[in-house]
Input
Amino acid sequence: MAAERGEVKLIGGWASPFVARPRIALNLKGVAYEMFQETVGKKSELLLKSNPVYKKIPVLIHNGKPICESAIIVEYIDETWSSDGASILPSDPYDRAIARFWTVYVDDKIPDAIRKLRPLVKGSAVAEVEAEKLHAALQLLEEAFEKCSKGKSFFGGDNIGYLDIALGSQLAWIKAVEKIVEIKFLDKEKIPGLVAWSERFYAHEAVKEVMPEADRLVEFTRMLLSGSFAK
Amino acid sequence: MASEKGIKLLDFWVSPFGQRARIALAEKGVEYEHKEENLLAEKSELLLKSNPVHKKIPVLIHDGKPVCESLIIVQYIDEVWPDKAPLLPSDPYQRAQARFWADFVDKKVFECGGRLWKLKGEEQEAAKKEMIEILQILEAQLGDKKYFGGDTFGFVDVAFVPLTSWFYSCETCANFSVEAVAPKIVLWVQRCMERESVAKTLSDPKKVYEYVRFLKKRFRIE
Output
């Protein structure tokens, strides 16, 4: 069985939410892979060769062929190992379009909010402004969750799907930023559906070991801002 | 809205994003109602209701259900009408490559092109340098192939070709030549224009330039 899978390598970093995505997808499919951890501040030869256009992680290398961009990698994993595990993308074209739409929305709003919030301190005026944007985005995603889940556990229904992976992978950094600026984003009062969903997501077999601890990300941020990773 | 049958496309005449959807629908031979939104005036009720998150065109409304974001619309069209003119290849690795390059076009070409005609001086020079790099990357990716996907017109071609109507505007505003840096891309555009779906959809580059000049006046960029 393992030989049929071919050689699967993933170039990534423990702190990257984008790297978490293919890791979760590969876990869902039960596909073993070799992890190549990049050192922050120094890009490896393998990375530069495999992703010459963006020079960014994650990169999946399957039988020597590289695939870049986290959402594209997840679709590739779903299509390549289509008979393993549940389908990651929904089967209906309209549901797929909705899952893709919200994934684009997540990528448009969440990483930017995290990048803007993480260098700030509690109580700063800028933090208030950026926090409002993140609250608003999460509110829309709460409504999307209601519609997509149709009363089930995940955006994908009974199983973790494409949008669960897209948004779920961002949770570790959302939790880290909560600690940094001391503002609660995963607020049961405001977004009860998403908060309950996030707990189920974190508890899932395919996700558990992948998500970094928020405290570790807070420490990572401190090091990033103090220039510890500069060459 | 949910009970209405048929296909409607909310569009704006010069939008390259709307044109992606129109080319895909034409390739598939799908009949639809084209609704022109006047983006320079107030947005219609239907647009606001169909795309409440972004309030942008294009929006494809299929039997009352809206699909937003041009590349998502193109994939949707490809999946709903798979039998005619498949736009994405069947091999997962080739599909990943097609998605990657369509995404590259999305991230890089329009945004950089916008800077080329909106900015002046040093900022424009920087945008020009970037655009040349982007075109060279795409030129290398196209290589000697007939289309980006190979022998068949596909997803990357649909994603990129409508943006080429804006080359003339970029060249004129920033004083450079696409043909000089990416001659294969220029030939590829000509090949695409041999397809009825593309020829009937793309805006005349001179009309696009008139529109760009109008926008510059309106936003006092001149």
User: Anything to note?
Assistant: DSSP finds eleven helices and four strands in chain B.
